[in-house]
Design brief:
The chain is α/β, with parallel strands linked by helices. Helices cover 36% and strands 13% of the residues.
């Protein structure tokens, strides 16, 4: 495993982050989830990402249990706040001071730790003044409950505004967590240049496009049993945008490239996002420990210019590049 600095800070994180969205506390039994975490640790992954909204707080609980016994100083534990939690009351969502200060305490209890390394705004809250949100985050840092702050799926304008306030408040906003893959490149034109300017790194999610870039979904063929595309608890909805035959056919064009490099298609997809120098880490999830062992082989892989050109040719115009696709909810929904 290799490590990269997160933003303009002294914090190093593993090139691959283990994330438990859509798995822990919902799709995967707790003992299997723990096995996946152990596989990540055995592979050298030190960075773990979750959120209070995942499985309505259960994902944090499962991760906290799985990490017990590990040296806390050797880990980087990230979580997020915004989405509705608990009974989904009128203040159980968003980035108000009330929700942030109450949520961090709940997250720390579930994660069984005194602090998180990174506390992230899961989305931009259009209903709360940004000044209120950033002051609350600054207070969380000053209380020692988080070391750094980050955001997720903020556009370039929002990043600039948030970073300016964080700087004025004397805290470090060092990361953004966007969706990013060969098929979803909406951060390239605006978010990445703004982030480079501000000293902010990307921690990217869904580098394998919900599993589509693994090549296991084939045009005109039945869906693999037990795959995300058959999951009625959220996975099927998330992957639906990629399930057109045109996309699946284009993805199959990546197979010869992966074969030439001695990689699986999933490893190629993860390696591709890591070629972006503004990406500090790619988040991988797993429903089985062997998936972790396979995907970590993407760390440290270098793709030369010829390979990157071949990938672009294979994907063609199937990649989404419109920066306006980086959007947050227009209102809170509890």
């Amino acid at each position: 495993m290799e490590f990269r600095y997160l933003g303009n800070s002294g914090l190093k994180i593993s090139e691959l982050t283990y994330g438990n969205w859509l798995t822990h506390g919902s799709q995967v039994e707790n003992d299997v989830a723990t096995q996946c975490v152990r596989a990540a640790l055995d592979a050298g992954i030190s960075t773990f990402d979750t959120a209070d909204v995942y499985a309505n707080t259960q994902a944090e609980t499962v991760l906290g249990e799985a990490l017990q016994g590990e040296r806390r100083q050797s880990l980087e534990i990230f979580t997020k706040v915004f989405g509705p939690t608990g009974p989904r009351g009128h203040n159980d969502v968003g980035l108000s001071r009330k929700h942030i200060l109450e949520s961090i305490d709940g997250s720390l209890t579930r994660l069984q730790t005194d602090y998180v390394d990174l506390y992230q705004a899961h989305r931009y809250d259009v209903e709360t003044p940004l000044e209120e949100t950033m002051q609350a985050f600054a207070d969380v840092v000053r209380q020692g409950k988080a070391l750094y702050i980050g955001v997720s799926e903020w556009n370039a304008e929002q990043l600039r505004a948030g970073h300016k306030l964080a700087t004025e408040l004397g805290v470090q906003l060092i990361s953004n967590q966007p969706q990013y893959s060969m098929l979803w490149r909406v951060i390239d034109d605006e978010v990445v240049p703004a982030s480079v300017e501000l000293g902010v790194s990307q921690i990217v999610w869904s580098p394998v496009a919900q599993g589509v870039l693994s090549g296991k979904y084939r045009p005109g063929q039945p869906l693999p049993e037990g795959s995300r595309a058959t999951d009625e608890h959220g996975g099927k909805d998330m992957i639906s945008r990629w399930m057109a035959d045109e996309v699946l056919t284009g993805v199959q064009n990546l197979q010869p490239i992966a074969d030439d490099l001695g990689l699986t298609m999933a490893q190629l997809a993860i390696a591709w996002v890591l070629q972006n120098t503004n990406v500090a880490s790619a988040i991988i999830g797993a429903s089985r420990p062997e998936q972790v062992a396979a995907n970590v082989k993407a760390a440290g892989v270098s793709l030369d210019a010829e390979v990157l050109t071949r990938i672009d040719s294979a994907i063609g115009n199937l990649a989404e590049t419109d920066p306006r696709k980086t959007v947050s909810p227009t209102k809170r929904e509890a």
